[in-house]
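tool_call: predict_structure(chain=1)
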Amino acid sequence: MTQSRIVCNPVDLPYAYSHVRSLTGKRSLSREAADPSMVLFKGTYFLFTSMTPGFFYSHDLVTWSLRRSENFPAYDYAPDVREVDGALIISASRRGKPSPFYRTTDPLADDFVEISPGSFPFWDPNLYQDDDGRIYLYWGCDARVPVQGVELDRTSYEPVGAPVELIASDTAARGWERNGENHDPKKNSLLSKIIFGGKPFIEGAWLTKHGGTYYLQYAAPATELNTYADGYYTGPSPLGPFTYSADSPFSAKPGGFITGAGHGSTFQDSHGNWWHASTMRVSVNHTYERRVGLFPAGFDEDGTLFCNQNFADYPMVIPDGPFDAWNDTFAGWMLLSHRKLVTASSSQRGHEPALAVNESVRDWWVAASNDAGEHLTVDLGDTLSVHAVQVNLADHQLDKIAAAPRTSLRQLEGHRRLIESTDHPTEYVLEASVDGDTWTVLWDGRGTGADAPHKMVTIQDGIAARYVRITGCAMPFDAPLAVSGLRVFGSGTGVPPAAADTTARRLDPLTAALSWQPVAGANGYNVRYGRDAEKLYHSWLVYDQTELNLSSLNAGESYWVAVDAFNENGITPGAVSSISRQPHETARTR
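tool_result:
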C-alpha cells in the first residue's frame, strides 16, 4: 500500500462553478458535477459529468485532470460516453430538439467530430455496443415516462424500429424508489409534490453485460435526496424482456458524511476489477450542487450485481492489480475527529467550528473574514497515529461575493449560467502537532494553483499528533475559508466497542424498524443488510442514533441484517438477524 493509491469519497476533482438562477428566482453560485459516465479507453480512464467544461481523465483512478473542450456539448446534462467500433461516442441530454452524437479516437487531442445530428431528443442517454456489433440507446429521466430503449443504425445512428418501454417505477413494491428524505414523503421537495405528485424520477440508465446476461441499471428517486440510488433489471438480450432484481438498489449510500449513490456507470479497470461511479449530493446552495463517488463493485457467483459501500467515505485503496471488492479496498483507518473539540480564529454566526467535525457535508464552519491566516484546529483529545486528513471545502454565499460576469458565461436552459473561468485555486496550509506549539506541515497549497475542494493528504507511515490545523491563504472568488469536514483518519489507542444487540421487525412491506442499545465507546453504527445472511450487500451508516427505519426494502422479500459498532479503534461486527417479510414479527438471530 502506498500513499499515492489511497483516495476518499467524494472524488477530489476541480468541480466547475455554476451560477444559477432557479425557477423561483433564487440565485446561487456553487460547484457541480454529477451523472458520471466513465470508461477505460486506450489505457486511460475518461470521466464525463454534467455541467463540466470538458471532461476528466486519469491513468490510475487516483489523480485526475480536467481537459477543457468546446467541441462537444459539454454543458448539456448527463453526458454519456461509450466505446463503439474503436472510438468513443459522446451524447448528452436535450429537450425540444434532436440530441447529436460525437466521435473521437483521441479525446486528449480534442478531436471530437459530430457524426450524427440525431433524429429525436432524449434525456440521460446511454449507448451500448453488443458483441455482435449492433448498438442500442437507452434514455429516460421522468416521473411519468418509463426508461426506453431502441436499436440504432450503426452508421447513421437513426433508430431501427420503435422504442421499447423498459423500466417504470413501482413504489408500492420497492421501498427505495419512494420519494423524500429517508423515503419520507413528508420530507419531499415542494416542487416535486406540486409538479409530479411526489412520484420518483426514473432515470440514468446504464447497460452492462456480464456472463451472457444484460444488466440494465437505473436511478431513483431524486438526485437531491440522501436516498438517491441505483437499481437494476436483468434480461437475455439488449432490449429484454427485463426482470426487476430484488437485490436493488445495488448502489445506495443514505448515511455518513456525504450521501447519495445514484445515476452512475459500471465499468472495469485495467486489471478487470469492477467499479461503480455515481452521484453524491450536497444540495444546499442549489438542488444540483453535487459531487462524484467511486465504489468497488462486482458480480457474485450467482450473478448478483453489488457495490461495497461500507464506510464508503473513509479512505479507500485503489489496488494496482486484481482485488476482492469486499476485503482489499478499505484502508483500515478509522475516523478520529468526530465530535472532537474544535477552535477557530473566528466564525460567522450559525457556522461555528463544531460543524466541521459533525460528519455532514451539508453544513460548515465559516471564518468571519476572508483574510489570509484564518484557521481552524481540531483537538483529537490525545496523541494518536494520524494517517490521513481529508479537507472538504464549502461554498458559502458566493452569490453575494462574486457578481455574475457578463463576458464569461454561457446561457443554459434560459435560467442557468456556468462560470467558465479556468482558475479556482484552493490555497491553504495543513499542519499537525503533538503539543499545539510545534507544527509539522502536512500540505502547503500556496502557489501550487491546485483546485482541490476535497483533498485528502495521506501520511504513509503515520504521524503522531493531537492537533490538526488548517490555515486559509486564498479561496475561490476571494471568499472566506469555509470547511464542511476537517476529517482526520488513523488509529486510536484503545479497543473497538462491544457488539451491538439489535432488534428488528417489519413495520410494513417496505420498512423494517431496527433498534439497538447504545454501545459504550461507540462513535457510530454501520447497518448491513441483504436478502441472504451471507450476502449483506447493502449498508446504511449512522452517527448519534440507536434506531433506524430501514425504508429501502422490496415487498415480499425476507431480509437479514447486522449492526456493526465502531469507534476510532476499529469495527465490531454485529450478529446477523433475520427480518421476516411479515409485519410485526421479531427478528431471529443467527
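agent: The first strand starts at residue 6 and ends at 7. Proceeding to next step.
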